[in-house]
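User: If you would, consider this record:
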Amino acid sequence: SDEKLDLNDSKWEDIHVITGALKMFFRELPEPLFTYNHFNDFVNAIKQEPRQRVHAVKDLIKQLPKPNQDTMQVLFRHLKRVVENGEKNRMTYQSVAIVFGPTLLKPEKETGNIAVHTVYQNQIVELILLELNSIFGR
């Protein structure tokens, strides 16, 4: 809503409230950050040979609408910082991918095996986190 938030207010001290709100924001978008029409393309990209995956994912991101690309870059840079503080927060590349994969990347209609989709969703998010500078530059 248009409500002004004071993030210094004690009710925001629980990090789970903030991360829950962030996930809910992305989950409730009318279309995922990785748009519906590119879902299968991203899945096919992650299935490629390891050396080709980064290039394929980078090319697909460039095909997304500019606001999606910009939002994705800011979000993934933030998530990378979360992982870099893993000693304090116990978040790894894999755990961040598990949390955000299905929220950011999903098919328009669930067909086939949801568990298989989840594996690919997580792998795509993890790859972007691991290869952030290759995909988005410095």
In short: The longest helix spans residues 66-84. The mean pLDDT is 91.
